[in-house]
Structure formats: C-alpha cells, structure tokens
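Annotators were shown the component list below and the corresponding predicted structure, then asked to write short factual statements about the assembly.
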Amino acid sequence: MLKVDTEKCTGCGECEESCTFEAIFVEDEVAVVNQDACTLCGICVDGCPEGALEIHVGEGLLTTNLSSWKGIWVVAECRSGVLAPVTLELLAKSRELAGELDTEVTAVLMGHKIESKAQELIFYGADRVLVVDHPELATFTDEVYGNILADLAKKENPEIILVGATAMGRSYIPRVATILETGLTADCTGLDVRAKDRALLQTRPAFGGNLLATIVCPGHRPQMATVRPHVMRANTPDPGRKGEVIHILPGENLLSHRVQVLESVKEQAEGPNLSEADVIVTAGRGFEQEKNVDLAKELADLLGGTVGATRAAVDAGWLSGRTQIGQTGVTVSPKLYMACGVSGAIQHIVGMQGSEIIVSINKDAEAPIFDVTTYGLVGDVKEILPLLIQRIQKERGL
Amino acid sequence: MKLEIGNWEEHKDVNVLPNFKFRISSFTLAMNIVVCIKQVPDAKTVRFDTEKGTLVREGVEAVINPFDFHALEAGLQLRDTYGGKVTVLSMGPPQAENALKEALSLGADKGILLSDRAFAGADTLATTYTLAKAIEKLGSVDLVLCGKQAIDGDTAQVGPGLAVRLGLPYVTCVNALSVLDDRKTMHLRRVNEDGYDMLELEMPALLTVLASLNTPRLPSLKGKMRAKKAEIPVWGASELGAKPDMVGLAGSATQVVSTSVPSFEARREMLEGSAEEQVEALVSRFKEAGIL
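Structure shown to annotators:
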C-alpha cells in the first residue's frame, strides 16, 4: 500500500496534482491516501519533492536464491534463413551489459537447418550458442518455441533473457514468462543495469510513447524483456571471434502443439517492412486523390524507405490496412519519418513519435503534427513533394 | 460431450502453474464466449506534464480499450451465428463498471467486474492469474477473446499469459477467422511483419484480435436501456478464491521505478520561405544528418 511519511510531508500538493485516480489529497497540510482509489502506479512517489511517499511491497512469490541465476541470453529470430536485425542489435547491447555484470552472453537459436547461423551469432557478440535444430521448428508455433525456451531457462538459470519485440517475439515470449512465473517488460527502448543489485533497468514507452517508464523485476528470475527493433545499434561482425556451439535435442514432450500452421504467406511489400524500415514516408488526407499517393511511393523509393498510411488514407482505399500507422495499426520508430499531408490526430502520433527525425509537411501551420516535428514545412504536399523529389534526384546525380 | 481441459499432462516438465479446472460446454448447441476488456484513458483527452513526467489528470475520460471493441464484436457475431452467450470480464477500479455497461449496451449477455483493493498494482503476471481465476469460476468456456493490446500499457502480454494459465492454445494478432462445419475447428489468419500465417486450431482456445478483424457495431437504444438496468456483479479476491500473494502488487514480478515524459518542443524547427526555399533548407538538414 501507499504510505505517507508525515514527518517529511510538507503538504505541498504535488502528489494531489499528479494523481490520475484522485487517490491522494492534502488535508490539514499533510497528504492523505484514499487506499480504495489508489492503483499503486507510483507516479506520486516519483514526483514527491520531499521523498515522503513509499509503496510498501508485499512478499509475493519470489524466486529463491537469486544469485544462482547467471548470464545474459539473447533469443535469436531467424526468418527465411536470415537473422532478424534486432537479434544482432541485442547481441551488441548484451555485450555492453555483460561487461558491467561480468558475465557471458549466450544466444539461443531455434529453427530447422539453421546451424550455419550459429557462427554468425558468435561474430556479432555471443560467447556461446545453444542450437535447437528440429523439423518441428521449421514453422513457428507459440507452444513449441515457448516450451523449449522455458525448458532451457529452467535448466540453465540465466539472469536475463532478451528477445526482439517482433510479431513472433511478442507472441510466444509471454508464454515463456508465464510458465517461468517471472516478470516480462514489453517493447523496451532502453536497457541498463544497476550495479548494486544487478537489476536490469528496462525503459519502455507507455501511452503510445507519451510516457517513458523504467521498470525492474526485483524478486524474480530470469528478468525478461522484449526489445523494439531498430533502437539499438548492432556491432560490426568480427570473423575472428571464437565461441562455443552447443547442440540441444528437444524432448518429445516439448514438441506437441495444438495450433497447426496451414500456410505461411509472404506479402512482399515494396521496400523494407514498416517496423524495420530506416525511412518511412506516410501519406495522409492531404494527398486528396489516390493518384497523388504515387508521390509518396516515389520519395520512399528514392530514400530507400517504405510507405505508411494514416487511417484516412486507408479508409479512402489509397493504401492497404496493413500499412496503417498509429494506435490501432503499427507502431514505428525509423531514423526518418516523413508525415506528408498528415494532420496528426493523437491516434496517429502515438504510433510514430518515437522516430529519430520527423519531417512534417502540411498546409495548416497549426496542425498538431507540428508538435512532434523536427523539421516542419508549411505547404501543399502536391507542390512540395515533386520539388523535393527533383532536388534529391539532382543531389544523387539522377 | 463434456471435456475436462486445463490439464497439462503432456507438458508436465515445463509446467509449474496451478491447474485451472473448468469444463467446456457442449458446443454443438451453443458457444460460451468470454471477452476480456480493459478501461483505459481516452487518448483524445490525455495530456502529459513534461516537467513532472506524469499524466495530467484533469479532463481525462475513461473508455473501453479500442482493440477490445473488436474482440467483443467478434464474440457477438459468433454468438449471433451459433447461439450461446457472451460474458464480458474486466479487472479494474469500481468505475470500470461503466465499460462493462457499455459492453452490455452493445449486446453482451453478462458483465462481471473484478475489483478489489488487493488487485491494485497488478502487472501482467498478476492480471492473468486474476482473470484465469474468474474464468475458472465461470466454469465453462469455448472461446476467450482479447484485444491485441491495451493502449495505455501496450504490453500485448495479457492474452498469451492468460491462455497459458488456462492451459489453452492461443493465437495472437488475428485479423480473420472462421468456424468450420464441425463447429469445433477454427481457421485463423495471423498477421506478422512479412505477411500472414493461416492457422488451424480446435476450440477451446484464446485469440487476441487486430482492429482490421471487423467493424464494431453501435449500441442500440434497447441495449442502452438494458445496460442501464443491469446489475454488474463484483468479484473480489475472496469470491475468486484467489491466493493473496498472487494478485495485485504482491503477485507482480515487475515494478515501475520512474516515469518521464519525452519532450519534442526543443528540437522543433519550422523551415521558412517559399516552397522552393523550404525544400532547399530540408535538403541541407538531410545532408547534415547523413540522410543524403
């Protein structure tokens, strides 16, 4: 429960203002908690200038013997014979964390006919690779991948498990965390360690990126996180790096599954997929007609990127629903996001505000998209985009 | 035909979970559907205080999580086709009753509020335990439907975690589904980065759904009247027979240690001049950033 240290409390009212649930208020110059309304979100604790608030934590079901859990695991994702970029990004980050924790980095590689990837994982930073190669792993199922990883973790006791926050990772990793009865932090954009207790500090956006929360898993092991692709940098592979490759035969009991994959279909969009693209050019209502959307495609091609859509552009039938960016679509964080003819409804902004550089082009200088913009251009996309395309072509000598 | 599920015999080596025992009904006659919904702050009314790093409370309205409308719609359509009933569950503070009433106005048969002081501060581990205990208490289920994720936490972990607790197979990110003639087998389309997978499973099962699955209906006047009069039962830890150290903060593995609000204003630059001049300025910024 939330407790007020009445000695320290000055009755300044910061907590009352910050509480979303009207659960704390100042009465006779001291903070009082309505325990029935309090959700223990901790926002007031963080904001109290006097350090007068504290959340008293229950014992729960704690992992015993925390210090027996050692090492950092990166669970590799291999789609169509290619290691996902996020796996390589995580190996680089893990090397950094392993240095601080004085421990080793293990990559877990599951799939079929993927053994050749083990060396690649070592070149990118793994000290050890656990390879589970089995025909049942040729297609992804939550049950089999989840059971094998949970089983390995129980036998080897890693202190940290990191996985890419891809469609696959975000689907089966919650299964693993639930089986292991430990904490899992979704879609992290920052990772660090706290030396004094070896806690993994996991920073993640909530409320569509409007709030950044740092989360710890103090009493349970392993500490598990899925990490957003594209926010960390991979190391250059070092073909001289040596490591150990260990082959593991999964037990038959781990291989049964109740969901059958009938067919896997690739919808090869032009250019890279949205969540891995470096550059996204998004078309909004400002294009006015379907034929103008070709301008966005042309610019995206020129910049080696891909095209995204607002809800309005999807509803108008200009672009497919799977390219929709925002609250009910895809969340993206490319290096360059170009919002063209996008007014910036909050439902759209929450899906793209994590981008490194945001360029916005809109006729209306007051459009809310400019609130999250790095470089703003006021004007008609139908006039500005052709100029920009021409100018970039000239720059490239085309 | 009555089946007992939630039995993990073949997964004994990996399972340390409490065994949830509930029965599925004879689906040839009717379908028991549970839809899990969450009340979230309406994105349109939420403001953030960059200095304090917190949410601004004033004027925030609470709504049903947008994805959950699509889960509910799927449940209602299945019920309307095959018969049965749709029970809506929500864990939250007492005011989450409003979300359940809204679900009733859309056509859900029953709403149950899971609310207790002891549930406060729950992370996804404690939430899935609490929801699983409620489904166990309901006693009979063929299909559990959840939205892909809640728009406040954005974790997408409750659906899969709940399925594991219940011992059910699950599929996330569903954007198309059909029930075959045997009324037991489902075909599903699961969306991923590169395209989609076509999947088959047998109910009972749990699905998390995307917004592209369907278009939610609007409440009818009759529905609104019914919702107004409806009593929403409230189940707390004791009604659920939940272990106190597995719910709320006590049952949570993760804790928030700090929050902050990212600020964008400092970096904003509005490029000036004619269209040509603005484009020229942008190209030079692109060169500085190494984009060109």
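Statements collected:
1. The first strand of chain A starts at residue 2 and ends at 4.
2. The longest helix of chain A spans residues 85-101.
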